[in-house]
Amino acid sequence: MNWEDARTYCQSLGGDLAAWGMRNATIRDAIINNLLLPRPSASYWIGMTDIKQEGNWQYIDGVPATENNTNFAPGEPNDNPNAGADCGELWDSKNLQMDDLTCSYTRFAICERRY
Ligand SMILES: [Ca+2]
Ligand SMILES: [Ca+2]
After folding, report:
1. What distance lies between CA 111 and its chain's CA centroid?
2. Which ligand has its closest atom nearest to the C-alpha of 83?
3. Backbone angles phi, psi at 26, to 5 degrees
4. If both were cysteines, with which of 27, 59, 86, 112 could 51 make a disulfide (CB 3.0 to 4.6 Å apart)?
């Protein structure tokens, strides 16, 4: 599903795309190592975007994305492919480091729910 549909899917479960859990390195690494890497290789949408202002990355709960709370793959975000790569993913080709990707691409979703 595309990034917007992934959000809608997560919201239908009472949550949203993962933001809090993605900016916490300890939790992010636990999710990647224990849940994602044992599965067949795949990339996943996360709750991060620069759709409001190009180059200004934010988590969808409003927290700015910084060097300290992201782990972009080397050279990312690069706004490729196709100018307008505005949605955040964990990229299987980069050991699930973060990447910016065109929002209409198809990815799995990582949802989180606060309770
Ligand atoms: Ca962008
Ligand atoms: Ca990219």
Report:
1. 10
2. 1
3. -65, -45
4. 86
Q: Which domains does the chain have, with CATH numbers?
A: 3-112 (3.10.100.10)
**What single letter denotes the amino acid at residue 46?**
I
| Cis ω for the linkage preceding 40 (within 30 of 0) | no
Distance from the alpha carbon of residue 115 to the mean position of ligand 2, in angstroms: 32
Distance from Cα 30 to the centre of ligand 1, integer Å: 27
Q: Which residue has the tokens 């859990």?
A: 21
Written as six digits, the tokens of 22 are 């993605």
Tokens representing 83 are 């100018």
- Per-residue pLDDT of the chain (115 residues), as tens digits, is 999 999 999 999 999 999 999 999 999 999 999 999 999 999 999 999 999 999 999 999 999 999 999 999 999 999 998 778 999 999 999 999 999 999 999 999 999 998 7
Residue 100 CA, ligand 2 centroid: distance in Å? 4
Q: Reduced to 3 states, what is the DSSP secondary structure of residue 58?
A: strand
